[in-house]
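ok here's the first one, seq then struct tokens
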Amino acid sequence: MTLLNLFYSFKPKTFAPPRLQCHRGFWVDGLQQNSLASLKKAYELGYKISEFDIRITRDHHVILFHDDKIGSQKVSEMTLAEVEKHQKVDSFESVMQWFSQIPVGEYHLNIEIKSKVIREPILEKKVLDLIQKYKVENRVLISSFNPFRLFYFRMHCPKIIRALLLTFENDPGNNFILKSQVLNLLAKPDFLHLNEKYWSPERYKTLLKQGVPVVLWTCNDPEQVKKYFHQGVYGVISDTLKPADVKNFEKTSHVETLS
């Protein structure tokens, strides 16, 4: 047992996440980001997994939405009706309804939890309830910058794959504790999802050597992705790259899955 066993989960996964993830669904041809339409489009184009963002409104609706605020007002302090005065949004349940009808193994979802809250995990409970209602626990992964959100899923449904998002940008909410990953002791993520700008094979060689899968975001240059795969990166999240753009230089990267 190494020190990394305290900070990452090395248990077999419910599935091996595809190496290329579509970022916020496929939207670059004009669809709205983080929408049911963009997730459907990614599926139609042959992506095997899409990432998307969710938040909760003041009246406890779980919606697909990236930004913390609309103008100067926090989304978490707005009702669904107030949000939709600015932008039509899709509900998380509408995604689960559609996704549950797709044959098992054809498509997966990376659900990014947007929440800085430490206590009162209302969003996480609603998300887990819907995941379990539609019986897709073995087909999704949960990602978040907030290790407390990952800890909730570790405690309440450990079979769901967890990915810690990490960046070193200077943001008021991105403090030393988060950057140091010390709270991985609680979260025990299965994957590290790292901002592409901070990737270094030298810096993360210990993680790679010990078998921690690293996924980089947001990667849109196919030659860079080819280089990353050669350096041992497990996968990438991209706005523009399509499955055909990377299939010829994907290298085998082992992730142990449940039989």
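and now the second one, same deal
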Amino acid sequence: MPDAEQPRVAAVILAGGLGRRMGGVDKGLIEYRGRPLIEWALDTLTPQADPLVISANRNLERYAAYGHRVLPDTLPDFPGPLAGVLAALEAVRADWLLVTPCDTPHLPPDLAAQLLHAAQQHKVPLAVAADATRIHHSCFIVRTEQRDNLVAFLARGERAVRHWQATLDSTTVLFDAACFANFNQPQDLHKT
């Protein structure tokens, strides 16, 4: 019999940016090793969360073809990744929201479990992935009850993920740095 106390974890893959450093292309649909980047994220995250949604502002039909709900930003003018986080917090019914970018194809298969365990162990509403040298602010799990906190933060004109995270009690979880290799520029696609 499943544990009734097991928290429900949803996930959002952030694919709603303008891809400025990638020449303006939709990064989630860029091919890496013969497959769009979004497919790498979906393969890793689908077993880790339910529901899983995609934050996107372009190519909505192409993303929807993957069988997951696609959420455009609810705020105007591409205000950044936190707009995608907010759209997901408003849409999902879960205790926790796992957040990852679409351009990180080697995410750990236990990302949700490790982050959730750390947040619960430390009794904090936020756990952020890190490696030995840096924090990966775009890979985190947050209590969905922090939605109003995020609304207030964005209403002040703030946009930086790390600045919002700094307003919350949090912990970090160490992973291998290779898990977070991401693609911000065309040449990055040939590094790994």
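notes on #2: Strands lie at 9-15, 31-32, 35-36, 52-56, 69-71, 96-101, 126-130, 135-143, 170-174. The two ends are 42 Å apart (CA to CA).
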